[in-house]
Design a protein that fits this description.
single chain; mainly beta; Immunoglobulin-like; 4 domains; 7-stranded mixed β-sheet; globular
Length: 619
């Protein structure tokens, strides 16, 4: 098995006599207790950067020697000590550098950067005035914030400024979730997924050892989420939506007007960015909040090491929740009683058959979905790397039986659908108490039952060995239509964007509705069409979609996001270029006004074309 880069790093750090890492190791900081001493509106804070042992999986598990912040005289913390004060608080800060042979640069703790030589102490006095979520960070490698990969990547702590009048040290109504990472190389839209060693944590721990949060039905839950890693993270909440109330970074934090707030189940948090989100659970049970990049939450060995081809394989794991995921995953349990007897006796019955597909191989498997709707086979194995579009009706009970005809374990997640936890599709976790959703073993089946409460654009996809099985074709679109409005195959255009199974092809292309070169679209002037986009790639969190005539952007009107209709304030007609991150759906209306040829391009964030659909517009 390949050694983790983190284990290699620990042997590459040299120590002076008397400056060895702390034997007790770093404390895992849940960001609930503020640091320092607060008296009469002044916070006195004495910090130190030192080398310590870090146990990101569990106490007593594999460890690595890293640099971390600590209060002087106390154990180091990962993340660093929390600074949380009421607005207007004056800060008396001292910071000491106990990292051997390294000069420390600290940012975010004053208006200027603080340079601290070895064994030196620097002092600053400043005032925290603007309420919001911020952070401080350090480096001994001289790298920029997003370039810290190894020994200094955990030199980060949260700063929260509460409104004036708040009590210092009182139990907050929100929780602080800090995303951290260590890696062997930088990721990019072309090499992301190819890195051999990668560790992601939330508040210093990797799933399944991240903290489990518990709430009650109808609680208003608020989280401050800080992306202090070098990668973007599309953060997806299962089973419901969340509202983004504030966004910011290390220097600013801005409230979002109520009618402008994103109401989403997935939102991309870029490196160095923060958000305040809120949500109200409507169903009891276990739910996930996780990054939707499979590389960031897929199965890994201790300390982020990838398994070898002959070693541990997550597609042979029956307990997906505990052994098939790691990294950026938070588990939430919602307590209460929402068990209203649902009548599924007259449900629409669908069978979703999971088959091995043509040209499948063990290293790059291909799968095919066959959709059997009330006895009618609607799709068969056609070597297309995407499942058929499933159409349901708002308010109509549905029962979708997933039949696994392959030799691998699998499970299907109904992405964005508000449903009972047991049917959410995370094997070994979805459900409540002892009634947990099972993995779908080879030659077995599982029926998911739900009644869609809203019309919109959703997805379904595997939630086992996601990178491998999604590349093989286990994803599709799910459209929920209003009663009395059947699917219009001419004016309603779903476009599912996925990753090719071949890694060389995936480095430069995406699939559109399961194909590298999809059939052209034929539109007519004066007719309004609805374009439904869904990004379920495994490595394109920065995907951009543009609709052009020659080199000029057309104009379209956004109408829905993540399956939820947009309010009027968010429906302004705009140039037709938009970012659609992994796990997100986005709907737009467009009415062509003149004939000619157009194209819909899938692009990287830098504008490189990954694929296109030709559009013929006729009078």
């Amino acid at each position: 098995m390949k050694k983790s880069v983190l284990l290699a790093l620990s042997s590459a750090i040299y120590f002076l006599p008397g400056q060895l890492p702390s034997p007790e190791g770093a404390l895992i900081n849940d960001n609930r207790k503020p640091a320092g001493t607060f008296r009469e509106g002044v916070l006195t804070l004495e910090l130190e950067a030192r080398i310590t042992k870090w146990y990101p999986d569990a106490d007593g598990g594999p460890s690595v020697d890293v640099q971390a912040f600590a209060e002087i005289g106390k154990r180091a913390q990962i993340p660093g000590p929390l600074i949380r004060v009421p607005a207007g608080t004056a800060i008396n800060l001292s910071i000491r550098n106990a990292v051997p042979n390294m000069t420390l640069m600290v940012h975010g703790l004053s208006a200027d950067s603080i340079r601290v030589p070895v064994n030196d102490t620097q002092r600053r006095t400043f005032t925290l005035s603007a309420p919001g979520t911020y952070y401080y960070w350090g480096t001994t490698s001289g790298r920029r914030f997003g370039n810290r990969l190894h020994e200094d990547a955990q030199l980060t702590g949260a700063i929260v400024v509460d409104p004036r009048g708040a009590s210092f040290g009182s139990v907050p109504r929100d929780r602080i979730l800090m995303i951290g990472m260590m890696a062997d190389t930088f990721g990019s839209e072309f090499q992301r997924g190819d890195r051999e060693n990668l560790l992601f944590v939330i508040n210093g721990r990797s799933w399944p050892n991240t903290e489990r949060l518990t709430y009650n039905l109808s609680d208003t839950i608020r989280w401050r989420v800080l992306n202090l890693s070098a990668d973007p993270h599309p953060m997806h909440l299962h089973g419901t939506y969340y509202s983004v109330e504030r966004t910011g970074d290390a220097t600013r934090d801005s409230a979002i007007a109520v009618d402008e707030r994103p109401f989403v189940n997935t939102l991309s948090l870029l490196p160095g960015k923060t958000m305040m989100m809120s949500w109200v659970p409507e169903h009891r049970g276990n739910w996930l909040f996780h990054c939707h990049v499979p590389e960031h939450f897929g199965a890994r060995g201790p300390l982020g090491a990838l398994p070898t081809a002959d070693g541990h394989r997550s597609h042979s794991i029956a307990n997906h929740a505990l052994q098939g995921m790691s990294g950026l995953v938070m588990g939430v349990t919602v307590l209460g009683d929402d068990r209203i007897a649902a009548d599924y006796s007259n449900r629409r019955r669908i069978r979703l058959l999971v088959n091995d597909n043509r040209s499948s191989a063990s290293t790059h498997p291909h799968y095919g979905f066959a959709l059997n709707d009330n006895g009618r086979e609607l799709a068969i194995d056609n070597d297309v790397r995407a499942g058929p579009t499933i159409t349901l009706q708002r308010g109509q009970p549905a029962g979708i039986t997933v039949v696994n005809r392959t030799d691998e374990f699998t499970s299907i997640h109904w992405h964005g659908i508000e449903l009972e936890s047991y049917f959410d599709g995370v094997a070994g976790f979805s459900g409540i108490e002892k009634r947990l959703s099972p993995v779908i073993a080879p030659r077995d089946s599982f029926e998911a039952r739900f009644t869609p409460p809203r019309a919109g654009t959703f997805m379904y996809h595997t939630h086992v060995d996601e990178a491998r099985q999604q590349r093989g074709g286990l994803s599709g679109m799910l459209l929920v239509l209003e009663p009395g409005h059947p699917f219009d195959a001419v004016r309603d255009i779903p476009i599912l964007i996925t990753s090719p199974g071949d890694l060389d092809t995936a480095a430069a292309h995406v699939l559109m509705n399961g194909r590298l070169s999809p059939s052209p679209l034929n539109l007519q002037t004066g007719v309004t069409y609805r374009l439904r986009f869904a990004n379920i790639t495994v490595s394109r969190p920065g995907l951009q979609i543009a609709m052009l005539r020659d080199s000029v952007l057309s104009r379209w009107t956004p109408v829905a996001r993540d399956g939820a209709d947009l309010p009027p304030a968010q429906r302004a007609t705009t140039p037709s270029r938009v970012g659609v991150t992994i796990g997100r759906t986005a709907d737009f209306e467009i009415t062509p006004t003149e004939p000619g040829e157009m194209r819909i391009e899938m692009q990287t964030s830098g504008g490189r074309v990954l694929g296109q659909i030709v559009v013929h517009v006729r009078q």
